[in-house]
Specification:
The protein is α/β, with parallel strands linked by helices and 374 residues long. It folds into 2 domains: 5-167 and 349-364, 3-Layer(aba) Sandwich (Rossmann fold), CATH 3.40.50; 172-345, Rossmann fold. The protein is built from 14 helices and 13 strands. It has helices at 15-30, 68-92, 106-115, 130-135, 169-174, 199-211, 214-218, 228-241, 254-259, 270-279, 295-304, 319-330, 333-345, 351-364, and strands at residues 5-10, 33-39, 54-57, 97-99, 119-123, 141-144, 160-162, 187-192, 220-225, 244-248, 263-266, 283-285, 309-311. The strands form 2 sheets. A 7-stranded parallel β-sheet has the order 3-2-1-4-5-6-7, sandwiched between helices. The chain has a 6-stranded parallel β-sheet with strand order 10-9-8-11-12-13, sandwiched between helices. Helix 1 (15-30) packs across helix 14 (351-364). The protein starts with a strand and ends in a 10-residue tail after the last helix.
Length: 374
């Protein structure tokens, strides 16, 4: 086979897992690897343009939570998918497997471990996820997206390497855009809820704008992601208020929208925070509440430590609170520019290359690379 041979990239079927996996895959292809993506059915809306030789879908399930019967079914699914992954790996003979978290990564990483294929886990959040925590002792290296990685089991810290979170090429391109000027007198605000959207923003942001004086409303340009079922009511509210706004359920060019903004209101998923850092934009972050690991809160805390973000809990995030914050932002554009610079100083633009170098070292180290024989 030409090049360095095949590698398998395993990622859960959401943007938060697939975007960094895609960025790594671009870098691995440059190094001459043949990339195989292993994911689940949810990835269908993302993997059409994924830079992989082949996309393999395996059934996935989580045994956590719920009653006994669903747990048993989930365990059976994992066992079956692990066997399927073993058969796949015997066929494609990967030189390494890189897992990006989420339960769809469990079967391929288990299969790789059983067959002696080297494993790298990438943890994008500031707290290790349940799937990666379960798999940690099977990995040669745990690449981390944030400086501090909480929740590591036992003595796993010695396995960690800081790579940052790989970001898509369009993010690197957007990072070249200078912080927008204020020549038209309008504060450009982007509201985004991540790949799954966030209803809280549709419920809070329009009423906050309504509380603003008419003059302050005229000095706003809002770009907002809203769930499809919320899109029309959000659009209609802004129209009645006379606010310059663009509302969609999905922005394919979200990195460029971030670059065009003075302020971003968002959740605090790992990909969102990493893109804000690389592009260099200030933010109001509202971490997703109720998460078992409080990963978004940890992501937001590390980003806010740079001075780039204001973090507000969802219970405090009210129309009154946001209206006050927007008025303060309009009055302090120099402060927003300083926060943008602080954000950019935290960005790791070469995360994909750092992670690819780890893969390259592992896959070409004859003392660690094993042929698939089991």
């Amino acid at each position: 086979m030409n090049g360095r041979g095949p590698v398998a990239v395993a990622a859960g079927g959401t943007g938060g897992h697939l975007f960094p996996a895609a960025a790594l895959s671009h870098a691995l292809k440059v190094h001459g690897f043949e990339v195989h993506l292993i994911t689940d059915e949810r990835a269908a809306k993302y993997d059409g343009n994924f830079p992989a030789h082949t996309v393999h879908r395996l059934a996935a399930a989580t045994p956590s939570g719920g009653s006994l019967l669903p747990k048993i079914r989930a365990i059976v699914t994992i066992i079956r998918s692990t066997r399927a992954a073993r058969r796949l790996f015997k066929q494609i003979r990967p030189r390494a497997v890189i897992g990006f978290g989420g339960y769809p990564t469990v079967p391929p990483v288990l299969a790789a471990s059983q067959l002696g294929v080297p494993v790298i886990l990438h943890e994008g959040n500031a707290v290790i996820g349940r799937a990666n925590r379960y798999l940690a002792d099977r990995a040669e290296v745990i690449a981390k997206g944030f400086e501090v990685l909480g929740g590591l089991p036992g003595n796993m810290a010695m396995k960690t390497r800081l790579t940052g979170n790989p970001v898509r090429p369009m993010v690197i391109e957007a990072a070249l855009t200078a912080f927008p000027d204020y020549s038209d007198g309008k504060l450009r605000v982007l509201v985004t809820g991540g790949s799954q959207g966030a209803r809280i923003f549709s419920d809070i942001v329009p009423p906050a704008i309504e509380l603003l004086p008419p003059e302050a409303r005229r000095k706003l340009h809002i770009t907002q992601q809203a769930r499809a079922e919320d899109e029309e009511r959000v659009r209609e509210t802004y129209k009645l208020l006379g606010v310059d706004a663009e509302i969609r359920s999905f922005f394919a060019d979200l990195p460029e929208r971030i670059a065009q903004s003075h302020l971003v209101i968002a959740r605090a998923g790992a990909s969102t925070v990493s893109e804000l850092a690389v592009i260099g934009r200030p933010a109001i972050l509202v971490p997703l509440p109720g998460a078992l690991d409080q990963d978004q809160a940890a992501n937001a805390e590390q980003f806010a430590a740079s001075g780039a973000a204001i973090v507000v809990t969802q219970s405090v995030f009210s129309p009154q609170w946001l209206a006050t914050s927007l008025v303060e932002a309009q009055a302090d554009m120099d402060g927003l520019a300083r926060r943008a610079a602080a954000a950019k100083r935290t960005g790791i633009t070469d995360a994909a290359e750092r992670l690819a170098d780890l893969v390259l070292g592992l896959a070409t180290n004859k003392d660690k690379v094993h042929e698939v024989t089991g």
